[in-house]
Amino acid sequence: MNSGLSRTTIHGYLRCLRQILRWLKDAYDAPRLAHLVPRTPRPRPRNVTVSQAERAQLLAAAPEDMRLWLLFCADLAIRSGTAARLAPHQYNPEQRTLSFVTKWGEHLTLPTTAEIDALIARCDLTDPRPFCIQLRAVRYGPTPTDVDRYSERFRIRFNRLKLAVGIRRRIVAHDLRRTAAVRLYQTTRDVRAVQALLGHQALTSTLWYLDHETTPVSRALLEEIKRADWSQEHTA
């Protein structure tokens, strides 16, 4: 199937089509057609992460508005579109937190880092414009107020920034979010902490980000689970 779509998109479309055909069969006694829809292997999660050296290169070369956007994505694992729209009304300077609604309508509050706070301090908290737009205006003067158009340009600017610092491999903005999730898991081995950072309601969504971060099973662990008193010790 050479449609130009990604394997993930194709897999999702075909799955939805089968569900619709099954529903038509059950609800309206339509002909049984779901079995005629081809099945494709479930695509593996994208497992690209950004190295510390690459992160440092990008941040060092980025103008302030883009540096804040990068930090939102790389430190707080915020989706790139949401990061470009974060504004003063979502920031609590006393608690140093950002509160916003995620892509799927979940309310999420995250603490900010020192680097993020330093850049936000250069913004006017009484100005309703997003932080990144304010920072760009400081450097370049009046900035277009079309937030959607502004946020969409980050992808183009991100690609240009990568080339400028010599990064040739394919890295997309969402890889910054994945990197934050993977590093948090590597540090804490706490999947629930990663779930909280990403703002996922379903743990299965979090596991998609960590699918390639498996831990080898040790011989000691296999011996441990065979102990007769294990269940009593771990159910207290």
How would you describe this protein?
With 236 residues, this protein is mainly alpha-helical. It folds into two domains: 1-43, no CATH class; 52-178, Intergrase catalytic core (hpI Integrase, Chain A), CATH 1.10.443. It has helices spanning 7-28, 52-61, 64-76, 80-85, 114-120, 131-140, 147-165, 174-188, 191-198, 203-209, 219-224, 230-234; strands spanning 91-92, 97-101, 107-111. It starts with 6 loop residues before the first helix and ends with a helix.
The low-confidence parts are: none
Strand order of the biggest β-sheet: 1-2-3
Regarding quaternary structure, what we see is single chain
Main sheet, how many strands, which sense, barrel? Answer: 3 strands, antiparallel
How many angstroms separate the termini?
Answer: 54 Å
- Examine the secondary-structure arrangement and name the CATH architecture of the largest domain: Orthogonal Bundle
Q: Which structural traits does this protein have?
A:
globular, 236 residues, mainly alpha, hpI Integrase, Chain A
Question: How is this fold's topology laid out?
Answer:
Layout: H1 7-28, H2 52-61, H3 64-76, H4 80-85, E1 91-92, E2 97-101, E3 107-111, H5 114-120, H6 131-140, H7 147-165, H8 174-188, H9 191-198, H10 203-209, H11 219-224, H12 230-234
Antiparallel strand pairs: 1-2, 2-3
Helix pairs in contact: 2-3, 3-5, 3-6, 3-8, 8-9, 9-10
